[in-house]
Recover the amino acids of this structure.
């Protein structure tokens, strides 16, 4: 499902009005009707209210006037507070303010904190509709809007936000000063980034997406495309499992991982590689770790590499090159540790191996200096899976700067280095070298545990081995990883998952996804 920025939404509105010829008031009527329909459907038990509708001076407030008029028509008691002077309301919003007045709706202009306090104390609503600010908010909330938000957030009954909770920036999900916490948000045409990125993702409550008459095909011309990685999208990426397939059909993954004290990372990634559905997994580990890994995962093949102080040594270069023969994908990084030998080995593999490959953890450091190596690779794009700290190191910036604009960080690095970036976090973002961005919809705090990144690397590696292209494997891997944690949360709660349990949960999650049981 496509995700829009505030500017893209404005562009689609404009083109629908100017090119298609649908008047703005029709779009506003459709928007207001969609909200009224949600209220009548989901809060029928609170009818006839009263409903309090808080409106701002822009078109978000205009939608609020439509909601007020339609709810009056449907027998609700409605109070409308306008937090602006009536002459500040212009255009389509002014048309609907007039229509509400003509319908004898009760509209009270509250120009300051004093009158707002008085009106809020008088209203006693059962339900509140937030139509103060929408996608046009461009600065921190000030004045009596701040008081209105605080009052809404202290209100005990349900709060429904029109388009986006007031105070949430539609392009980033950031809170501009303060923001409404809604139970339900009804947005129009498509979700906005601000609905999916935190804190907007929590503040919006349940998201309802309403068609207001903006043709989907207009979105196809937009420069930057961003998609919500829903179950439906993930399902479309699942690789085939032909009945006559054998283990060779489903690919052979070479995992290069582990060091003294970190053999568990290799074990977890190896298990996830197999749980992803790959036919065969070979794990190359420092010789001293081979028995540990082989005992922990008897289903994988293990290869002992020359080692230096517990880490794979540069003397292993030729052996590793030989091991790549006949493999469909490589996964490099979990628990490798950091050393100049590791840098040399990974750089050589980047040069020699033209097939799909996922790099994580310690292997990522190589990329900071490998611009030229990556440019001349002429191979399937790499998948890299940094957390914000690693992303900051790769971009030569700070974690705070990465966190301030996660979509740009992921996109910039993907374009610059011609790689698929999986920027871990809540939510995880996946960016392609072509500039596409996917925002994951699955996952929860259970994933914040040791080894969960190793599981993701093995999972993506296993999907690459099954023939998925890099962007598809990264998206499906990220979705399944989060969805497996979501299933576990239903059973064990939101703390205390072991990463090994996550790997074991991948097959039933995949099956549930296939059967349409995830949404
Ligand atoms: N044709 C359209 O453009 C449609 C717009 N729709 C609605 O219109 C909304 C966008 O409307 P607008 O662009 O008018 O903007 P908003 O209604 O979001 O409000 C912004 C208004 O407040 C002012 N403002 C911005 N930041 C402020 C701040 N911090 N403090 C005080 N005032 C501030 C702006 O100058 C503008 O007048 C959408 O969210 C949606 O609800 C829908 O009616 C569908 C059709
Ligand atoms: K709003």
């Amino acid at each position: 499902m496509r995700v829009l920025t505030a500017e893209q939404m404005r562009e689609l509105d404009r083109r629908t009005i100017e090119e298609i010829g649908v008047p703005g008031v029709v779009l506003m009527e459709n928007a207001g009707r969609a909200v009224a329909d949600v209220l009548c459907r989901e809060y029928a038990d609170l009818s006839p209210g009263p409903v309090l509708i808080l409106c701002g001076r822009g078109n978000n407030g205009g939608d609020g006037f439509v909601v007020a008029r339609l709810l009056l028509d449907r027998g609700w008691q409605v109070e409308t507070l306008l937090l602006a002077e009536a002459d500040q309301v212009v255009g389509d919003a002014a048309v609907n303010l007039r229509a509400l007045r003509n319908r004898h709706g009760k509209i009270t202009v509250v120009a300051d904190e004093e009158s707002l306090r008085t009106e809020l104390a008088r209203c006693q609503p059962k339900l509140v509709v937030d139509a103060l600010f929408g996608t046009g908010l461009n600065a921190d909330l000030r004045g009596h809007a701040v008081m209105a938000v605080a009052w809404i957030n202290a209100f005990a009954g349900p709060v429904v936000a029109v388009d986006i909770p007031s105070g949430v920036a539609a392009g980033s999900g950031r809170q501009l000063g303060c923001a409404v916490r809604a139970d339900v948000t009804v947005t129009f045409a498509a979700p906005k980034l601000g609905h999916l990125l935190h804190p907007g993702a929590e503040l919006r409550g349940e998201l309802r997406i309403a068609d207001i008459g903006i043709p989907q095909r207009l979105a196809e011309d937009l420069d930057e495309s961003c998609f919500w990685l829903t179950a439906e999208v993930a399902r479309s990426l699942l690789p085939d499992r032909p009945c006559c397939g054998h283990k060779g059909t489903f690919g052979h993954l070479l995992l290069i991982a582990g060091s003294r004290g970190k053999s568990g990372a290799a074990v977890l990634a190896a298990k996830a590689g197999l749980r992803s559905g790959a036919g065969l997994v070979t794990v190359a580990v420092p010789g001293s770790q081979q028995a540990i890994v082989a005992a922990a995962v008897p289903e994988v093949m293990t290869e002992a590499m020359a080692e230096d102080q517990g880490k794979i040594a540069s003397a292993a270069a030729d052996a590793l090159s030989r091991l790549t023969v006949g493999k469909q994908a490589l996964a490099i990084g979990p628990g490798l540790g950091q050393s100049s030998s590791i840098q040399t080995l990974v750089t050589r593999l980047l040069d020699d191996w033209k097939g799909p490959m996922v790099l994580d953890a310690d292997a990522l450091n190589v990329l900071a200096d490998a611009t030229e190596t990556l440019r001349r690779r002429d191979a399937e794009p790499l998948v890299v899976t940094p957390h914000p700290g690693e992303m900051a190191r790769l971009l030569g910036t700070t974690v705070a700067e990465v966190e301030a604009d996660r979509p740009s960080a992921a996109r910039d690095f993907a374009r610059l280095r011609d790689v698929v970036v999986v920027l871990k976090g809540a939510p995880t973002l996946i960016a392609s070298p072509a500039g596409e961005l996917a925002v994951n919809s699955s996952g929860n705090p259970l994933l914040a545990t040791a080894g969960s990144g190793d599981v993701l690397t093995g999972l993506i590696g296993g999907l690459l081995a099954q023939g998925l292209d890099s962007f598809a494997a990264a998206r499906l891997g990220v979705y399944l990883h989060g969805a497996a944690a979501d299933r576990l949360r239903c059973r064990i709660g939101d703390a205390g998952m072991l990463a090994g349990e996550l790997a074991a949960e991948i097959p039933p999650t995949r099956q549930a996804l296939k059967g349409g049981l995830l949404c």
Summary: The domain at 2-223 is CATH 3.40.50.10260 (Rossmann fold). The first strand starts at residue 2 and ends at 3. DSSP finds 21 helices and 20 strands in the chain.
